[in-house]
Design brief:
It is a single chain. By secondary structure, this protein is mainly alpha-helical. It has two domains: 47 residues, Rubrerythrin, domain 2 (Single Sheet), CATH 2.20.28; 344 residues, Citrate Synthase, domain 1 (Orthogonal Bundle), CATH 1.10.580. It is built from 18 helices and six strands. A hairpin with a 5-residue loop joins β2 and β3. Bound molecules: carboxymethyl coenzyme *A (CMC).
Length: 428
């Protein structure tokens, strides 16, 4: 293959370098095209645009492959832990036993948050969505640790911000739920592991401690691993672009949380359950809802189906579907919406509309069913996604800084009015 691509405009040829990744992905480097020709490229939604070179996550959507730092997601989901995967994503290699113990110790020591966070929490009405509360609490970290916003940051100071964020995120996430429930918050218990501590802060009551069930903690840990990174998706790109202005880690991650909230991204896990409940309440007529999803005059889409990058099975969805069966059996939970979900999947995979468009179940299709079985309420599903995605966002932010990437600033093609003369209101 030639090392250059040629673009011919008005008979003039421009040569643009071809970039090859370690998994043989190819890109045409157009970064100098405008300075040479005055022409930009147009790609709404960045469907065909690589925004960076990244060494964190490899994804082949045609085959259905997902690797973190070279390790297949299937191996990590089966054998690793969320803490270990967080270390892998952020620092680039799996930790030794000593490194893992130090990392675990550090992330455990910082779980407590300043008491004044409770005053901030008090200011929210109980109608607040936990995602809005979570992003606000994360951005408030800037106020409690003002040095973290300094532009001149040493690697040690940045690492401390990272550790603080990893440690405090479960506390904020659980507190956003307590706010919703109108219950007093629980303080972290540093004798517990990451997932058990989170579940304790979510569910313990002043009158009753929470019994840790290893089936529940293991399932939660696996879900967090599966959500930990997904290369340049909407929220990761948001984190990188906000961070490219040299905004702080906390500000960048808070922006990522808001990007994740939308129903086309992480909010889909909540939307899937709402959809499955509606189908159930409607008498379980799956075909009717399939027809709605295919009708171009109906805005309804099959939530949890389709993906910008996967044109084959999302490998995470395969793992989650199997885990959903295992967890529900182990916990003795029977959830009728699992059957509706399976029926919907079966019909969609055989329907020409979905087959032609290569629409498969994505990570969000079955995750909500497990969360429900674990006792996690629907409005917390996207918060769970954020908890899992945190190490990925941090890794993306770090990499963007390490690469000294320029401020993110796309161009546009202007289609508005051309220059015209202003008249005061009295003359219009
Ligand atoms: N139901 C019905 N039709 C769909 C769906 C769906 N869920 N997804 C895509 N299509 C159709 C779409 O109408 C279009 O048809 P046509 O070519 O006739 O216009 C075609 O498939 C291509 O869709 P697109 O919207 O151009 O694809 P996209 O890459 O811009 O969007 C997506 C990807 C995930 C936003 C979209 O598939 C979707 O809205 N899915 C439902 C929401 C969802 O489950 N989101 C979670 C994504 S995975 C978690 C994450 O990483 O955030």
């Amino acid at each position: 293959m030639s090392e250059y691509a040629q673009i011919i405009v008005d008979g003039k040829t421009y040569e643009l370098p071809i970039i090859r990744g370690t998994e043989n992905e190819l890109a045409i480097d157009i970064s100098k095209l405008r300075s040479q020709s005055g022409i930009i490229t147009l790609d709404p939604g960045f469907k065909n645009t690589g925004s960076t070179k990244s060494a964190i996550t490899f994804l082949d959507g045609e085959i259905g492959i997902l690797n973190y730092r070279g390790y297949p997601i299937e191996q990590l989901a089966d054998h690793s832990t969320f803490t270990e995967v967080s270390y892998l994503l952020i620092y680039g290699e799996l930790p030794t036993a000593v490194e893992l113990a130090a990392f675990q110790n550090a992330t455990t020591q910082h779980t407590l948050v300043h008491e004044d966070f409770k005053t901030i929490l008090d200011g929210f009405p109980s109608t607040s969505h936990p995602m809005g509360v979570l992003s606000s609490l994360v951005t408030a970290l800037n106020a409690f640790y003002p040095k973290s916003t300094n532009l001149d940051k040493s690697p040690e100071a940045i690492n401390l911000s990272i550790i603080r964020l990893l440690a405090k995120m479960p506390t904020f996430a659980a507190w956003s739920y307590k706010k919703k429930m109108g219950q007093p918050v629980n303080y972290p218990n540093n004798n517990l592991d990451y997932c058990s501590n989170f579940l304790h802060m979510m569910f313990a009551l002043p009158t009753m401690s929470y019994d840790i069930n290893p089936v529940v903690t293991k399932a939660l840990d696996k879900l967090l691993i599966l959500h930990a990174d997904h290369e340049q998706n909407c929220s990761a790109s948001t984190v990188r672009i906000v961070g490219s202005s040299q905004a702080s880690l906390y500000a960048s991650i808070s922006a990522g949380i808001n990007a994740l909230w939308g129903p086309l991204h992480g909010g889909a896990n909540q939307a899937v359950i709402d959809m499955l409940e509606s189908i159930k309440a409607d008498g379980g007529n799956i075909q009717k809802w399939m027809d709605k999803a295919k009708d171009k005059n109906d805005p309804f889409r099959l939530m949890g189906f389709g993906h910008r990058v996967y044109k084959n099975f999302d490998p995470r969805a395969k793992i989650i579907k199997k885990a959903a069966d295992e967890v529900l059996t182990a916990l003795g939970v029977q959830d009728p919406i699992l059957d509706i979900a399976k029926g919907l999947e079966e019909k969609a995979l055989a329907d020409p509309y979905f087959v032609e468009r290569k629409l498969y179940p994505n990570v969000d299709f079955y995750s909500g069913i497990i969360y429900r079985a674990l006792g996690i309420p629907t409005e917390m599903f996207t918060v769970m996604f954020a908890l899992g995605r945190l190490p990925g966002w941090i890794a993306q932010w770090q990499e963007m800084r390490g690469n000294q990437e320029p401020i993110g600033r796309p161009r546009q093609i202007y289609t508005g009015k051309t220059k015209r003369v202003y008249f005061p209101c009295s003359q219009r």
